[in-house]
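During data preparation, a discrete fold description was generated, and the record follows.
___
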Amino acid sequence: MLQSFRDNIKGFTAIFLIGLLTIPFAFVGVDSLFLSGSAAESALVVNGETLSELKVQRAIASERSAILDANPGLDAALLEDQLLRPRAEQQLIAAKLLEQAARQAGMAIGPRPVAEQLAQIGAFQSDGRFDPDRYRYVIQSQGYTSAEFKNTVAQELLTQQFSSGFINSAFVTDSEIDQLAEIIEQTRDYYYLLLSAQQQAEQVEIDSAAVEAFYAANSARFSTPEQLSVDYIELSLASVAAAIELSEQQIAQRLEQLEAASAPTELRSAAHILLEQPSAELLAEIAQRLASGEEFAALAAEYSTDIVSASAGGELGFSDGSTFPEPFEQALASLAVGEVSTPVETEAGTHLIKLLAVESSVVDVAQQRRSVEQALRAELAQSQLAEQLAALKELSFNAESLATVAAELGVAVQRSAPFSRDGGSDIAASAAVVDAAFSDDVRVDGFASEVLELGDDRYAVIKLVESIPAALLPLAEVADTITAELRQQRVAAALQQRGMAYIAELEQGATIEALAKRDQLSWQVVSDASMAQPQVQAEILQRVFAMANPEQRGSFALQPLASGDLAVVALREVTLGSVERMSAERRRAVRAGLLQSGVLAELGSYQTALFDSADIKR
């Protein structure tokens, strides 16, 4: 019964891990993917344990990616870090608190479950099988070391294992199933008649006096707001960079600097046999078999508890000296090619390490030309933009026209379309521009604005060109709109009045059928309607299941419809549902739903208690 829910939780772990690998660089920033500088600094402290700024940035990026996946048309620029950060931090803190609670309960995750989880992730597979080289490439391309990523997996598995305790202790009683079945499986019998909005509208006349009175009383609704049009000069880092022409001398000089700084990196290819608390006899047995000439790869497949690498003969790929734990790296650095180390201890267990190959990695400077050009342009653009912004600020102060300022700077003056205080298109989509345009300095006194920050390294100065006052639209332009609105109001009021009259008759003993036939109205009887009756109008069905259980003469209500019609509804009978009438599949689904609700509620309460007692520093 609980297997499905357990599988869902396990599935979430896989989805979480895949999510770590699919966060675009653009969301995090390439520099922030490496633990250096501010990225490694503590952003959160939870009961004395730190969560780095890098973790927070990754969580923000993951949140942004999930929102964009669910809303493909959404502009990513709207999902600013400060908007997503509170939720991302809350999720990180919640996960850390559960992890701490699990450790305090004596729970731990060994290397084997981590390896099994990694082997199941499609991003690490080639031809349906785990590929160690692909694994290393994928995680390193996202800024993770192998140890860091495995630690992340272990933390997720630990949290999952701890949460499973709530699932295993949860249960649902038959009485709870019975009570829920009475509600969700109940059926209702009802009648309704329809009052036609179209027929009622034919009896409604709207004269010109009514239109004029409505126009006078609601003049604000029929006025165009004040609008402004501005001239503006825009400067951006992108436009400045695009205009920069680099000389061959500048590029060659930077390439020479890069070549001088790019010392060769020595890379070591390692394989290992990982053992968990091996006996001296086992270590001696493996050493004897190696000494007798047996292949290291075959022994790794037989003995290693790291099933990820065991399937590849123990191969771990290349390391530049920072991939593996320090004791492992020290031992690897001391080996000659083909040599096997003595047992090496790390947190993962005991390793027998073999050095497979040594290579030198040299930066191909010639291939770096494009990135060097981009970096040079970015550097020069930053300084040139700063100079241009300073000049723009000075030249635009008390300027009679932006044309002279633009000529001095060698840029163009642009003009906006008219926009109101609600903003507009292009530059008027910026709140900073709208606020400045409607300020007294710009709108009343006619001064140029201060230099405005538009975001994404874009800046502008604006100056008023034209002010278009608010104006009342001519009655002739809005008369049809007013007439339609007045007609709709009067039709709705008339239908409501008629509906209440019918309900009064129903309460005196009349029936829907008799009233409908008397007044030649459309009517319908519905028997044994369930909450999800597909053949019935949803608006009427929703009203029926919100009505009180009828007494002897029934329960009555009015329900406006989207068409404008009005339904007069008479509920005649409510039949409670029962478990006996439910299919076996339906009963299982109901039980699972109750169970999941209970588990989530209990886990939520537990997490709230953890938050309340935690020492959290942001």
About this structure: The radius of gyration is 36 Å. The chain has four domains: 3-170+607-617, 187-222+475-575, 226-247+369-469, 264-362.
